[in-house]
Design goal:
About 45% of the residues lie in helices and about 15% in strands. It has 20 helices and 19 strands. Bound molecules: ligand NAX, adenosine-5'-diphosphate (ADP) and potassium ion (K). Homotetramer.
């Protein structure tokens, strides 16, 4: 599923109209038909439609015509005094020619009339503003939005909830709280922001007749990860295969007092299919792994020569969980970046020690995946967490491009990007918000890298499967722990093949 800002829509719209010769009124008609599909014509009888003066309002006026043609009772309100856009005017004139009464909302008494109509209606269709909203919502617009939110039983927003920025996810003063938003051609970037669901409700994408090649021409390669895409990439294990076919993962993790992180990462690597897994750590952590992950091999962290030799042979290295923020960790990161041409998954303390030293990433011999949560990303970039969360994709992309790495920016809607192509993960949930969950993901991604998946595919499959596993377990559990994921990840990956 494609994700974009509003400017893409304006570009593809322009190309379709000017180069392909599709009249803009046809696109508007297609948009209206896309919305009508979701208006529950079989169950509902009385609709209130509220239109602005731009093309979003034009869509709503075309929707009105279809509702009337379907025999529904409709009250139509036009709000504001701006001149109408050309196509809005066309649909307005058609309704006037049909003898449909359109009530103007320009003062407080009109707002009370709107309130009465909404109270009696089954559904409100919101076509006040779309992606053309530029400034703070004030005056009658502000009042109308409040009345809709207070009284509507069910609000369906056209393209975006009015008052919401499809680009940034900001609310311009006041905003419709929809039960459903029918958006066109692409999932809007702003919908990804934390809290946007409160305004958009369920989001549905409708095509409006613009050919895919036009969208691809301008699309900046941002996608929602879809199950079928992950299924296509995830391969079954071959009948005649042996452990040598599934690679060797080195896990550098754990320290005195933080042995759980290394056990989790190591076990996650084993359980998600690596041919061989070796933990490098202190004696306590090795003891834990000997007890809880008998399948894994281990090497004490003081055997420098042995470790460096092994680094040159393994297919992937996961480094960071539970290592502690120390000079020793920094030296280990440097050593890994220098000595392996396999894929390196950098997490937790291995990220933290790179604060102010991110240029080291540019010296990596192998491919690098970093898996920060927003707090770690803030430390790494020197930005505030709030800033990171307000523009997750762009910040992750920029970092990936600058340092030539893959960034897996974790949290709700984890972003996976190499700076060129970006994926947004829909799986996972709040039940997974507890310690060890990230260590587990690190082990899974490193394991998939060792098995021969490209770093980007391993990141996408790993993140998606980790979240889907959490979703399944959470169906009957209040909290999902890393141990729950480890116990179920093999089944989840199997279901994805
Ligand atoms: N491919 C496309 O681009 C298509 C777009 N369509 C619709 O067109 C919409 C975009 O249309 P427009 O660009 O005309 O923009 P909008 O209809 O979103 O809004 C623009 C209008 O609102 C006014 N306005 C903006 N901010 C305001 C504020 N704070 N207070 C008061 N008035 C304000 C503007 O002056 C203008 O009159 C989309 O969201 C979608 O619904 C559809 O018609 C189908 C085709
Ligand atoms: N609300 C949520 N929705 C989706 N995924 C979540 C949610 N909360 C946590 N997760 C996932 O759980 C993992 C937590 O990682 P992290 O914060 O690094 O944990 P830790 O450092 O304790 O191991 C990430 O993969 C994250 O995306
Ligand atoms: K709208």
């Amino acid at each position: 599923m494609k994700v974009s800002k509003g400017e893409l829509i304006r570009e593809i719209d322009k190309y379709s109209i000017e180069k392909l010769g599709i009249p803009s009124i046809i696109l508007m008609e297609n948009a209206a038909l896309g919305v009508v599909k979701h208006l529950m014509l079989n169950e509902k009888e009385y609709y209130v439609v509220i239109c602005g003066r731009g093309n979003n309002g034009g869509d709503a006026l075309a929707v009105t015509r279809h509702l009337i043609a379907a025999g529904k009772k409709v009250s139509v309100f036009s709000i504001g005094l701006n001149p109408m856009s050309k196509d809005c005017g066309v649909n307005h004139d058609i309704l006037c020619n049909m003898g449909v009464k359109i009530t103007n909302i320009s003062n407080v008494e009109d707002i009370e009339f709107l309130r009465d109509s909404i109270i009696r209606s089954d559904v409100v269709v919101d076509g006040i503003f779309g992606i053309g909203l530029k400034r703070e919502v004030r005056g009658v617009y502000d009042l109308a939005i409040t009345v809709i939110n207070e009284t509507s039983k069910k609000t369906i927003s056209i393209d975006v909830p009015s008052g919401f920025s499809g680009d940034t996810g900001e609310v311009f003063g006041n905003c419709i709280k929809a039960s459903k938003t029918i958006t066109f051609e692409t999932y809007k970037r702003g919908f990804l922001n934390y809290g946007s669901h409160e305004y958009t409700g369920e989001v549905v994408i409708e095509k409006i007749g613009i050919p895919d090649f036009v969208v691809d021409k301008y699309h900046n390669k941002e996608f929602f990860l879809e199950r079928k895409f992950i299924q296509k990439k995830t391969k079954e294990r071959a009948l005649y295969s042996h452990k040598g076919n599934y690679g060797h993962v080195m896990v550098i993790a754990g320290s005195e007092g933080m042995t759980g992180a290394s056990t989790i990462a190591t076990k996650a690597a084993v359980k998600s299919g690596a041919g061989l897994t070796t933990l490098i750590s202190c004696e306590d952590a090795l003891q834990a792994v000997r007890n809880f992950v008998p399948e894994a091999m281990w090497k004490k962290n003081d055997d420098s020569q042995g470790i460096e030799t092994l680094m040159g042979k393994v297919n992937s290295i996961a480094i960071g969980p539970g290592l502690g923020k120390s000079n020793e960790t920094l030296n280990n990161v440097k050593r890994v970046l220098k000595n392996t041409d396999g894929t390196i998954v950098i997490d937790a303390d291995a990220i933290n020690v790179l604060e102010g030293k991110t240029n080291l990433l540019k010296e990596a011999k192998g491919n690098v995946i970093i898996t920060p949560h927003p707090g770690e990303m803030a430390r790494l970039t020197g930005m505030e967490i709030k800033k990171i969360q307000s523009d997750r994709i762009e910040i992750a992309k920029e970092f990936a491009r600058e340092y030539g790495v893959i960034v897996v920016l974790k949290g709700y809607n984890t972003i996976i990007t190499n700076g060129e192509v970006s994926y947004i993960n829909p799986t996972g949930n709040g039940a997974m918000a507890n310690g060890g969950m990230g260590d587990c993901l690190t082990g899974i991604i490193a394991s998939l890298c060792a098995q021969g998946y490209s770093p980007m595919d391993a990141s996408c499959i790993g993140v998606y499967a980790h979240g889907e596993c959490g979703d399944k377990v959470s169906e009957h559990k209040f909290v999902v722990t890393a141990t729950d994921i480890i116990d179920n990840i093999s089944k989840t990956i199997k279901e994805l093949t």
